[in-house]
């Protein structure tokens, strides 16, 4: 409890040695869940620090989100907030090469909402927000259009699926 209290109240940049001591203590005296919790919190801290340095490092966002989604007890709100922070990092240039990895953040977000959180309305809003953000006059991503149409088909909403596919052709 002392370690947990200290880690919550000491600034993160000064707590590296404390994390090491806490990890060693948990390995000696803790149970499996405690050890996994320590390691997960340490990795979360490392990802947060890396993202402070470069918020446009989409690979780090992917790894961080994968860590959060693979936790035994998924905190859907924490995962959503992290996805929202990730998709807020819009590529600075309107060139397709810069947008490729970024678009996969949106795709994973939509899949998380549909399969992980099982929230149909939020999934629909994620796909629509993604499609609204893409600068279609310069380039587009057919994969997003198709995934959105397939989602609407799974929801038995053929009218919206057709409209999205027709929009792709226009």
Describe the structure in your own words.
The chain is an all-alpha fold and 170 residues long. The longest helix is centred in the N-terminal third of the chain and has 22 residues. The protein is elongated, with a radius of gyration of 20 Å. The chain starts with a helix and ends with a helix. The mean pLDDT is 82.
Span from first to last CA? 60 Å
What is the gyration radius calculated from CA atoms? 20 Å
* Average residue pLDDT: 82
Number of helices: 9
Largest sheet: none
Helix content: over 70%
Helix-strand pattern = HHHHHHHHH
Strand fraction band? under 5%
The total beta strand count reads 0
Q: List low-pLDDT spans.
A: none
What is the general shape? elongated
State the domain count. Answer: 2
Helix and strand content put the structural class at mainly alpha
């Amino acid at each position: 409890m002392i370690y947990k209290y200290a880690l919550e109240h000491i600034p993160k940049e000064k707590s590296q040695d404390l994390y090491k001591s806490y990890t060693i203590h948990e390995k000696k005296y803790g149970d499996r869940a405690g050890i996994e919790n320590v390691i997960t919190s340490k990795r979360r801290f490392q990802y947060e620090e890396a993202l402070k340095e470069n918020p446009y490092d989409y690979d780090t966002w992917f790894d961080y989100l994968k860590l959060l989604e693979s936790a035994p007890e998924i905190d859907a709100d924490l995962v959503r907030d992290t996805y929202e922070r990730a998709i807020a990092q819009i590529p600075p240039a309107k060139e397709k090469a810069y947008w490729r990895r970024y678009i996969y953040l949106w795709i994973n977000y939509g899949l998380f909402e549909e399969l992980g959180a099982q929230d149909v309305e939020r999934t629909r809003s994620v796909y629509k927000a993604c499609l609204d953000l893409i600068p279609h006059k310069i380039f587009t991503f057919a994969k997003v259009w198709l995934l959105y149409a397939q989602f609407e088909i799974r929801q038995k909403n053929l009218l919206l699926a057709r409209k999205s596919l027709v929009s792709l052709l226009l």
